Amino acid sequence: CCLASAQAQTVKSDTVIHTDGNPIIRHEFTADPAAMVYKGKVYLYTGHDEAPANHNGYVMHNWTCFSSSDMVTWTEHPSPMNVKDFTWARDDAWASQVIERNGKFYWYVAVEHATIHGKAIGVGVSDSPTGPFKDARGTALVTNDMTKAVKHSWDDIDPSVIIDKDGQAYLFWGNGICYYAKLKPNMTELDGEIKTITLSHYTEAPWIHERNGWYYLSYAYEFPEKIAYAMSRNINGPWVYKGIINEIAGNSNTNHQAIINFKGKDYFIYHNGALVPDAGSFHRSVCIDYLYYNKDGTIKRVVMTSE
Ligand code: FUB
Fold first, then answer.
1. What does the H/E/C string look like for 87-122?
2. In the structure, which protein residues have their CB atom closer than 6 angstroms to any atom of ligand 1?
3. Residue located nearest, by CA, to atom 9 of ligand 1
4. Closest ligand 1 atom, CA of 92?
5. pTM for the whole structure
6. What is the interface pTM, i.e. ipTM, of the complex?
7. Phi-psi sector, 238: left (phi>0), alpha (psi -120 to 50), beta
């Protein structure tokens, strides 16, 4: 019953949602959260699990966006981008992240390429954080034939982006191995070679952020996934493994985190399978819990809550 009703209630226009606990979105399944703080608001970008009941695999065709100025009341700005906006892509609106540069918003996404075998990374662009976004290139930014380190077809997924203090932008991504590369100032072309990072038990879902002169590279660890992290004083490494941030998230094999600071508090945003009991790994829901740092910059383990 509940699975069908969560799927049926997809919001079609901007709608206000009041959150009284985790999962924060309950009228639809949301996955792979990425968050951006911009002008006093948090913009939360998610994928959208649409698999039929008992379907064993991801069915994901579009991304959605939510905004909030207090982390409790969210407005949904539904589907500012669809996998069909990338004419070179077949399907699979997988994990993504948005960043602002010079008043434009760049949305890096993983999709299945229509003609080059495997997953690929594209980039959408908009003048507004809530879209609509359009394909910024007309072609993929990263394709499977550019990354030879891993032989499987889904290694080019889960983009995470950062603009360093000197203005240099970097893209991190990868399943099975963590890749990274510089981006040109236009944010739509790689600049130079694709490099790899060795991380303990790395699976996927890199999230890069900086705080007080430390760079943090958090990622999905093993499978089913925990979330672990490494720290470095330099964005080019060396990265030092620091441990687990989050345990396996309930009945979801994946966990996929974003970490932000908003109005003086730190947040760990992730997904689990808690919205509909037994719905499992392909009907996921975004949750938010507090994240705390120790004095030396290391991260305390997250306590997952339903509050
Ligand atoms: O949502 C599809 C895939 O599942 C993502 O790309 C991974 O990070 C995992 O969450």
1. CCEEECCCCEEEEEECCEEEEEEEEEECCCCCEEEE
2. 31-32, 47, 58, 94-95, 110, 157-158, 204-205, 254, 256
3. 254
4. 2
5. 0.95
6. 0.98
7. beta
